[in-house]
Design goal:
The protein has about 250 residues and is mainly α. The protein has nine helices and two strands; from the N terminus they run ααααααααββα.
C-alpha cells in the first residue's frame, strides 16, 4: 500500500516532469512554427476563428471598393479566393498560420504573409486538380494527405508533384497544369488577411531592427493576446501531471 507521503512525492514529481515535458513540447512547436498545435494554441484558435471570419467579411466588403489601388487589388484577389474556398475556410487557414508564428522568432511580416498565401495557393491547386482530374486524382490527393510524419508544407509539395506527374502521364500538357501565382499576389493576399486581424486588435505590425541599416515589420500578438497566452500557459502548467502506475 502506497503511503500518503510517498503519494505526495509522486504527485510532485509527476507535476515537475509534466511541466518540463510541456516546455520541451512548446519549444519544439516554436522551432517548427506550429504553435496552433499546442493546447493553448488550439484554445486561442477556437476563441479567435469565428470573430476573425466575421471581421474578414467586413474588411473585404469595405476594401474591394478601392479596386484601383494596390490594396484594392489585394482585396479583390482575396475576395475571389473566398468565393472559391469559402470565407470561413480562408479565415481558418490564415488564423492558424498567424497563431503558428506567435513568439517563434520567425515572424517577419512578409514571411508570414507569404506562407499564408502559399498555403491558400496549395488549397486552390488541389481543388483545381480534383475538379479536372477526376476520381483517380482525388484518390491520389487523399492518399498523400493521409501520410504521417510530414509537415503541411511537405504534404502540399508532395501532392503537387505526385498529382502533376499523374496528369502529365495521362496526356496533360504543361500548359494545362495549375498556373503558379505571382509572388506579389501570394504575399498580397497574406498581407490583406493579416491586416484584418491587426485591425481587430489581435495582432500588431511592429518594426524590428534586423541589422544596422535594416528594419523589418514583424507580426506580434497584441498585449491582450500575450496576456491571455501567459495566463493560459500558467494555468495549463498548474494542472499538468504525468500518469504513472502506482507503486
Amino acid at each position: 500500500m502506497i503511503t500518503s507521503k510517498r503519494q505526495k512525492e509522486l504527485e510532485e514529481l509527476s507535476h515537475r516532469e509534466a511541466v518540463k515535458k510541456r516546455r520541451r513540447d512548446l519549444q519544439q512547436a516554436k522551432d517548427k512554427s506550429y504553435i496552433s498545435g499546442t493546447t493553448e494554441g488550439r484554445e486561442l484558435f477556437r476563441n479567435l476563428f469565428l470573430p476573425y471570419s466575421e471581421v474578414l467579411k467586413e474588411r473585404l466588403q469595405t476594401a474591394i471598393q478601392g479596386r484601383a489601388s494596390k490594396w484594392g487589388q489585394f482585396a479583390t484577389h482575396t475576395h475571389d479566393l473566398t468565393e472559391e474556398l469559402g470565407v470561413d475556410y480562408v479565415a481558418y487557414c490564415a488564423m492558424k498560420k498567424m497563431i503558428d508564428y506567435i513568439d517563434t522568432g520567425n515572424n517577419q511580416l512578409v514571411e508570414v504573409a507569404t506562407t499564408i498565401g502559399r498555403v491558400l495557393e496549395s488549397e486552390v491547386r488541389i481543388n483545381y486538380y480534383i475538379k479536372l482530374g477526376g476520381e483517380d486524382t482525388e484518390r491520389l490527393v487523399d492518399a498523400q494527405q493521409k501520410k504521417k510524419n510530414s509537415s503541411p508544407r511537405h504534404k502540399h509539395l508532395g501532392i503537387k508533384l505526385s498529382v502533376e506527374k499523374q496528369l502529365l502521364d495521362k496526356g496533360w500538357a504543361q500548359d494545362d497544369l495549375f498556373p503558379t501565382w505571382a509572388s506579389e499576389v501570394r504575399t498580397g493576399i497574406g498581407l490583406f488577411l493579416i491586416e484584418a486581424a491587426v485591425h481587430a486588435g489581435w495582432f500588431t505590425r511592429t518594426p524590428k531592427r534586423m541589422a544596422r541599416n535594416k528594419t523589418e515589420n514583424v507580426l506580434l500578438p497584441s498585449p491582450a493576446i500575450s496576456q491571455w497566452l501567459e495566463k493560459a500557459r500558467s494555468d495549463i502548467d498548474s494542472w499538468s501531471y504525468l500518469s504513472w502506475p502506482l507503486e
